Structures are given as C-alpha cells and as structure tokens.
Amino acid sequence: MIEIERNVITMQVTELTNEGLKRAYKIVVPAATLSGQVDTRLAEMSKTAVMPGFRRGKVPVTLLRKQYGQALFGEAVEKTVNESVGKTVEDNGLRPALQPRVDVKAIGEDKDLEFDVTVELMPEIGDVDFSAIELERLKTAVEESQVNEALERIAGANKEQKELAAPRPAAKGDQVTIDFTGYVDGTAFPNGSATDYPLELGSASLIPGFEDQLIGASADEEREVKVTFPADYGNTELAGKDATFKVTVKAIRELVARAIDDELAKGAGFDNLDAMRQAVRERIEQDYNQLSRTLVKRKLLDQLAERYKFSVPAGLVDLEFESIWKQVEDAKTAGQKVEGDEEKLKEEYRGIADRRVRLGLLLAEVGRKNNIEVSAAEINQAVFREAQRFQGQERQVLEFYQKNPQMRDRLRAPIFEDKTIDFALELAKVTDKVVSADDLLKAAREAEAEEDKPNAA
Predict the structure, then answer these.
(1) Domain range spanning residue 224?
(2) For 186-207, how does the pLDDT look when each residue is reduced to its tens digit (9 = 90+)?
(3) Which residues of 33-47 are buried (b: 16+ CB within 10 A; e: fewer)?
(4) CB-based contact 347:321 (threshold 8 Å)
(5) Which helix (H) or strand (E) holds 169?
(6) Are residues 249 and 277 in the same domain?
(7) In this structure, is residue 154 part of a structural domain?
(8) What is the domain count for the chain?
C-alpha cells in the first residue's frame, strides 16, 4: 500500500488486481481531507455571500454550511475522485482503453471516502512488419463498350415524351397519366389517391401488379386494379391487405430514349459529348479502383488478423458487440428474418466484435507510432463531401457540422483508417493482377456475400 499526496489530497492506494489488461485499485481518502476542502470553499464564499439580514461578506459560516454544505461536499467528492483516479493512472503508467470505472464503497461527511477503481488497459501490440505481407490486387481497364452502355443508361433515364402518332392501347414502356383512388374493405384509405399521376408502365414504382393491369388500357378508360400490399409494406395498417384501385387513364404518351449526342451532354452540364464520355470513363474507372482497393484492404485485414493475435479489452468488445447486436434486433423489428439459434449467433457476432476491436487497435497503434494524422483541411473536405450528398441543403449541413464539433470528430476515424491502410499497402508486397471487369465485379460480390455471414468481419 502506498500513500500519495497531491496538493491537499492525501490518499491511500492499494492494488487489488493485476491480471492481463485489467487493473483494480482501492483508494481511501481521509474524511479530514474532504472536510478541509469544504471549509476552504465556505471561507471563500463568506467573503462575498449575501443573505437577508446580513451585509455582504458578513454571513456566518454556520449559516452558509447549513445551506450549501451538502452541495459543497458533493463537489469535493467529485473533484477528489477525478484527481485521485487521474493520479493513480499517471503514477502507474497506465494507458486506459476506456474511462476507468469507479465503485464507491463508503461515503459520508464524517467518514473516509473509500472507492474501487477498475481500469482496462490498451494492449501492448509491438511493431507490425508489413513488408512480410504479400497481397494480390485485382485491376481492370475500362472498355469502350462499358462507356457506351453507361451513356445508353443516361439517355434511357432522360427519356423524351412523344404524343402517339395514332390512338392505341397503353404498352409497357409508355407513360400514362392517371387518376386513382384506393380502397380496402370497400373504404378509401388515407393517402391512397392522386390526380394527374405520371406513371411509366414497367417501372415497378408502384405496388406489384398495379402497372401490369394498366397495359392494354386506352385513353379515357376506367379500370379496376386489384392488388395485395406486400407483407413488409411501410404502412403497417395496409401491409398484407388486399386493395382495389379505381383508375382512370387520362392520357398515353410514348417514352423515347434521348439520342446520345452533344445536346444530351449539354443537358447534363457538359460542353459536348466528348467531355461527357471522358467524365463517364473516369467515373467508371474510379468505381473499379474503389472496388479494387476494397478487396485488397480486406485481404490485408485478413492477414493482419491472422498474424497478430493479442488480448483486447473486454469492455471495448462488449461495446462493439452491443452495436452489432442492436443492428440484428433492428432488422428483426423491421420484419427481416434472422436465421439461426440466438445464442450461437451471439457467440459468432462476439467473435466479429473481437476481430474488429483487435484490428482497430492495431491500426490505431500503427498510426500512432508512424505519426499518421488527420489534418483540419482533410476534415473540412469530408464535411464538404457530406454536404454535397444533400443537394439544396448544403448550407444547412455545413452549419450543422460547424455547430457540432463532435460530429466533425466522427469523420476523423474513417479518414485515419484510410491513411493507415494506404501506409500499410505502401510497405506490403502488392502484386497487381489484370482481370476483366466481370471478374472484378464477381470477386466484389463474393466478398460482400462473405461479409454478410455471421462468422465474417
């Protein structure tokens, strides 16, 4: 047992546990230390305190103690606990992984303050030898046919409406303008009607089966459409129920894909078709490079997880597991089916949590030892990228991040991880393998499917 004196605080510290990453200490602070702090604060207050019947600075300390003594004692306890825990951590050279846990055993104005402190430590990871890691990175080139297909999709998404050359029934691919009212059990339901509603037949934008029953309809024709709302429909009052819609087809127009020319490019904000074609090529190339990086990153993490085994703080694993399991529970609440025995799933997801925490600590240690930092400029760039995701609300998003520094800090972690991964890939032995776009996409799908499994991370 050792005694530590810091300013006016004297405390006795006894080590209770020293196992693995866990440390526990018993700390006792004499009652006189706390009462002395309260007396000091009361003396300070008495110099300026005002009460009815007394001049400023003339209020008796006994009255101040009666009114404020309990609150001041609480402040003294909080201050003493924080300082003694901080001093214990500092004197023992500890690197806490989480906020130390305090368990008060004895407290009172005439009692010694006694409490236990439990600290979970960061593990000692040691140096990571990235040069011993060999990786294969899949790469692919953008083919002209892929650029053409992308341009065709753009043209198809910007179809032009044309009046019918001669009256005819509606066909798949046409746009019909309709009025409709929906009924369940013979009663119109809220938000189940619309007028002059534009609908592309075959777009699958409405309830399954709705659009199919309008194929063959003529202008000014009234039809009765019968459908069943999906079991997972957003409105739970309608989910799984049969419904009837009374529909009037008011107009039929043909939808024709735009020509792939300079006019299409100008409509998309480019000077001409060549500029648009180049932008499309670069976007496809970026997408492929991102897929390639995601795959090689996963291979890197797999090797790191296999090569570097060390204990991780149980508290961090618990927090990560709780986050994962909440997603599982939310999926159940949303109606998604989660297969498997719950206890077995929990065990598997805890394994995922352990791996994630271990890799996160490893990358954090690599970044710390190699002075990898995230600059304010990089955070600002991330904020601007977030703002661009909300077109028309950019200013509000920027103001939100400006007023909430903690949200800015959340953007730091993925940037730090990316920079650390880039650092690791520079040191690892990475061999590029040229594959077709189909093979790259297949590998990405397989990796994504593997991540969806409970035993993947």
Answers:
(1) 159-256
(2) 999 999 999 999 999 998 899 9
(3) bbeebbbebbeebbe
(4) no
(5) none
(6) no
(7) no
(8) 3
